[in-house]
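Following the same procedure, the fold was encoded as C-alpha cells, giving this record:
***
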Amino acid sequence: MADSSCLSYLHTPPVKPYRYTTIGKVAQENARQRPNQEIFVLREFDGSRFVLTNASLYEQADQLARYLVSQGVKKSDMVALIGPNTLEMLVGILGILLAGAAVLHCTINMKTALDVKKLFQISGAKYILVDQGKDDCLLAPMKAMLEHCNVQMDDRREEDRINVIFLRETNLEGFTKTNTLTAVLSKDTKGVELPSIFPDDPAIIYTTSGSTGDPKLVLHSHFSFASFPFSWVPTSVDYEMKMYNDRPFSWVGGSPILDILGSNTRVFMDVAITMNGKHADLLWQVIKEERCTEALFFPYIIQDLLELPPALTNDGFRLRHVSTGGQMIDNFYTRITERFCHSVLVVYGCTECIPIARRGPVLQGEVLKAGDVGLPYNGVEVRVVNAQQMPLPMGTVGKVQVRTPYAMQCYIGNDELTKGVFTKDKWFRTGDVGEISQNGHLILIGRETDAISRGTRKIYPGMLEYLLKKMKAVKDVCIVAVPDKRLYEEVCVCFTTGENLMPEDVKQFCQENLFVTNTLDSLGEMPKYFLVFEEFPKLTNGKTNKRAVAEKATLKLGLAKVREHEDALTI
C-alpha cells in the first residue's frame, strides 16, 4: 500500500475569509468609493476609445434592472444575453444580476437554430437581451436565431413568448423600436423596487463549447465568483492594475464579473480583430497606448506577437505579467518574456470550477515543463486517481479531480449529468489526465476524451502536439483519431503552416524524434497519417474544434466508408 504522504494530492489553504456577498453589492460599492475609475475601456479598430466608469456602469445597470422587474422579471428567472464584447453588453450583464435574475450566456455561432431553441426550452428564459454589434454587423445571424426562438416581435406580452430587448438601436424588420436600451434608460422607474439578492442565489450560466456533444448549461452562484480569491497576477502587487483581455464575455476567463470584483480596469477590443492573426501590431499598439500592466493572451496571440518584426517592439515598454492557458504551454510561449513582458503565468481551469491552478510567475530563461500548471489556487484541492477512484502515488499518471467551494451549482436541466461529474465526496471529475510531480506541481498530459485507442494502447495527443510545435515551420498542430479497420483508431497529424511545409517533412521529423520501436506492445506512438490544413475550425472560445478537424481528416483520407462498414458488421 502506498504511503499516504506520497499520494497524488495537492491543497493550497485559503488565506482570507470567504467574501460572502453578491456581484451587485460589489459593483455598488465600487461606484460609491471609486465613481470615476474607468472600469472598462473599449478600443475599436479605427483607434476610437469608449469608456464605462464604475458610476456610469452601475447607474445604467440599475435603471435596466428596474425596467426588467417592471416587465415581470422575477428573482431567479433566467435572462438570456447574446452579442459581442461591447459596453452595452456590460450594462446588460450587471442589469440582469441587479434584477435578481441569472445571466444566460448564449453564443452567436451555436451550431444550429435548433440548438438555440433547445437552450431556451431547458432554461425557461422569458427575456433575451440582444446586441447586434456596431453598424448591425451581426444582424443577419441574430435574426436567424430569433426567428427560431418563439420571440415576441411587438409590444404585446404573450405568456409563451420570449421578450426581446435590443441593447442598441436596430432597424430589424418586424421588431418594435421601443424595446432598446436607449429607450429603457429614459423611462421613469424610480418607484420600482429591486429584490433582495443573496450570495447563494443563481448568477451566471455558461454554455460549454459542445465539442463533445450538446452544450451544457453550467450554473454558478454569486458566491462562486465573489468569494473566489482569483487574480490573474500574483496577489502581492503594489500598483494599480490595468488588464488587457479581449476574451468573450461568455467565457469564464473573459467574464467581466472578475474585473468588477477585483475593481481592476479592463481594456478590450472585439475578439474578431485578434482572432484572424493579422492585427498583432494594432493589439500591441493599443496595449502601449493604454499603459496596460497585464494581459491575458491565448497561445495563438502569443505566437502572433512573437512573429512581429523586432523594430515594432524595441521601444522599452513591457507588461508586468502575461497570463495564458487553454492548451499545453511550454518554453516556446515563455519566449514572450524576451520582448513583451517580465513574466508569464500559466492558468488552468474549467467552466465548472473557474480557475483551478496556476504556475508562475515564470521569468525569462526559466525552464517550464510542458503541461506544468503549478499549484492550486487558495482553497482548492487537486488529486490524481485511478479508474477505481483511488489516489495514485506521486509521479503516476491518472485522472485529475478537483474539490473546491467555488464549483458550479449544477448543470441546468440535467440532474443525472450533475451527479455523474461529482463523486460522493464532492470531487469534480475534470476529464483531464495528469500527474502530481515530485516537486508538488500538477502536470497535465491531455484529455480523457482526446485519447486515441490504437489497439491496446492509449495515446494522448498533448505531448505529441507539444513535440511537433518545435518545428519552426509548423504554425499550429492538432492530432486526432481517425478510424482504422484493424486497430480501431489510428493517429493523424493535422497541421497548418505559413511556409512550404509538406506532410512528408513532418513525417520525417516524427521518425527522427519519436520513440517508436522498443515498446512493450510494438505499437509505439508514430502517427500513420499526416495532413496539411489551411486553417483549423474554431470553437466559440477560440480553441481548435478537434471534433471538426477529425471529421475533415477522416473525409480527406477516405476513411468514412471504412468506419461505416465496420459499424454495419457489429449490428
Observations:
- Confidence is low (pLDDT under 50) at residues 516-523, 561-571.
- Residues 451-570 form a domain with the GMP Synthetase; Chain A, domain 3 fold (CATH 3.30.300.30).
